[in-house]
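VOC family protein
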Amino acid sequence: MPQPAGAELEAVRERRAQLRDKYLHPAAERPATTVRGVHHLALICRDVEETIRFYQDTLGFPLVELVENRDYAGSSHFFFDIGNGNLLGFFDFPGHDHPDFHETIGAVQHLALSTSPAEFDVAKAKLDAAGIDYLGPDRGVENSLYIRDPNGVGIEFYREELGRFEGEPLL
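Tokens:
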């Protein structure tokens, strides 16, 4: 996709600065959030078994539940443990066409998952062994590795503590 340049880029940057000044309050002035955190993310998959094999066998996320979707007869709803009390959920919708992934408004760009340096290295080795392509950490972003799952969902393994971004505490 074409990136803004010149005057258009400067206008985008100025708008971001305006939004930051208007909405980003110092930590001491921020109210507490109104929720407890992410219970689960719910994504759509093409093939239940392929998705289970990828997340459980390749990435090491244990499958913790597989039931029928309460809102769509025949559809599966299943969950993986992604640590810290968080779940990654999927639905399939038999009978629906599932076009290839593309970045668009409302789509998931990627999920960034916090990992320790040791687990980051293990993930990289598993991806290498499985012949799965990835971006990073050799592209100037030393602490990130990006892949796409069989459904096109972007996954980032981020060698960073929860609540921090690029070494800076956000929470």
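Residues 102 and 109 are 9 Å apart (CA to CA).
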